[in-house]
Amino acid sequence: MLFSSLEFLYGFLPLVLILYFAVPFRLKNYVLLIFSLGFYFYGEQTRIILMLVCVAACYIGALLIDKVERKGLKNLFLWLSIGVCLGMLGVFKYADFFIGNVNSLTGASFALTGIILPIGISFYTFQALSYVVDVYRGDVAVQKNPFMLATYVSYFPQLIAGPIVRYQEVEKELAFRRHTFEGFAEGVKRLVLGLGKKVLVANVLYSLCETFKAQENPTTLFYWLYIISYTLHLYFDFSGYSDMAIGLGKMMGFKFPENFNYPFISRSVSEFWRRWHMTLGSWFRDYVYFPLGGSRVGKLKLVRNLFVVWMFTGLWHGAAWNFVIWGVYFGLLLVGEKLLWGKALEKLPKVIQHAYVIILLLISFVVFDSTSFAEMLRNLKGVIGIGTSGFADTTSLYYLLSFLPIIVTAAFLSTPAMSLFAKKLNANNKTATALSVITPIGLALMLIAVTAFLVDGSFNPFLYFRF
User: Fold this and answer.
1) Please, are residues 217 and 389 in contact by the beta-carbon 8 Å criterion?
2) 277 in catalytic set
3) Among 117, 150, 177, which residue terminates a domain?
4) Are 260 and 240 in contact (CB under 8 A)?
5) For the segment 82-98, what is each residue's pLDDT rounded down to a tens digit?
6) Is residue 255 predicted with pLDDT exceeding 90?
7) Whether the predicted model's global pTM rises above the 0.90 cut
8) What is the pLDDT of residue 117?
9) What is the DSSP track for 402-418?
10) Are residues 372 and 255 in the same domain?
């Protein structure tokens, strides 16, 4: 069930909110647990068992880690919990990828499993693992109520697409949280803005990408339209969903971490990854990179640590070679910035730094969106004019003129310019008063527009379902 769907917005969500605020606080988490399990069961049916097994493994493992004194036993229970969760992730996400590569390398003909990837498994697995590891480290107290841990892992706003919320970030709020009208209103605002980003921007941009893929021999101009539209689509699609999740959490008293911070204004690839999918980056940093030694090691180990993290980051996004190549690509760039050209980059004019990042990102997302090595090479050659039907034709010019307004608007909205302008207006008492009246009206109109798009049956995919 997508957040950007009529059944969620006008069926599931109102029912959750009515019951959630109708019951006393001691029952609120149980309401969330029941509806969260129902939310997941709606899309996954029997595969909800995988999530429950993951929760059970981490719950029991953390209890045993907390109970025993011997370091060896603590390590054993930690690795058993990790093994169960990552084992399920490995089988259900990577089994066919492994079998297919074995067949290709050896000429064998092992049958593929045909397993369908469970929605959100990469997200809820990482959340559950962060809990058991933090208990092992002594960073959080063990949760003795299994229903509370299950609520944390299965909580529907962040269940299928993040942000990746660590247990320590919501530990206190699970036990007690305040509900205010201001917090609820802020949550509604964030939800509607996320809906607008997803439905009114991302979906429109993706329709252009689909049109490009239907062309038999696109022009160079069409290749550029594709990679720009796809990059902007990916940002608005995922950040819009993150905004919706954060907004839903706020409506019910939870404060989730931010997941995006205007990544396209970055002046280095390193900065970009501090601004893009921040909860995933910080998870790999704290649970993989730092345990390996981080950057406080020799150059060879630093290179090893970065490549380990980025191999895992690529594979986290999908069981396919394009994701592996994508991860290695960023690993190479980050190694280069740390050890080779990073200091020289800092001395260049800001416009060149931004251009450097944007060009490298556009290339990366061509790799990210490829379904085969041949498609990847064709698209990479296409953007430099190799193998195309020319620079432009009437078809590509038509789509340029048709989609240019939304592309320009999306590019502008991907910067903090609008946010900075709103802050300036709020700093003035007169304009702040006017803004307090205009904002609810604007949000209402945006919700009406989103609803109209959804009623019309407009294209409404969500890319990160496959992760």
Assistant:
1) yes
2) no
3) 177
4) no
5) 999 999 999 999 999 99
6) yes
7) yes
8) 86
9) HHHHHHHHHHHHTSTHH
10) yes
Tokens 């340029």 sit on residue: 400
Gap between the Cα atoms of 29 and 174, Å rounded = 7
Given a cut of 60, whether residue 467 has pLDDT beyond it is no
Find the length of the chain: 467
Phi, psi of 145 (to 5 degrees): -95, 110
**Choice among 179, 233, 317, 354 that is catalytic:** 317
Q: Are residues 94 and 222 in the same domain?
A: no
Amino acid identity of 429? N
Assign 428 a pLDDT band (cuts: 50, 70, 90).
Answer: confident
Q: Is the pLDDT of residue 465 over 70?
A: no
Nearest-10 Cα torsion for 273, 274, 278, 279: 100
pLDDT at 202: 95
DSSP for residue 393:
-
| Domain interval for residue 33 | 6-177
> Which residue in 357, 413, 362 sits closest to 226, CA to CA?
362
On whether residue 464 sits in a domain, the answer given is no
Cα(317)–Cα(323) distance, integer angstroms: 7
Cβ(125)–Cβ(88) below 8 Å: yes
Q: Which two tokens stand for residue 216?
A: 């038999």
Task: Find the distance separating the first CA and the last CA of the chain, reported in whole Å.
Answer: 15
Among residues 201, 176, 159, the alpha carbon closest in space to that of 35 is found at: 159
Alpha carbons 87 and 395: distance in angstroms, whole number: 49
**pLDDT above 90 for 326:** yes
Sorting pLDDT into bands at 50, 70 and 90, what band is 462?
low
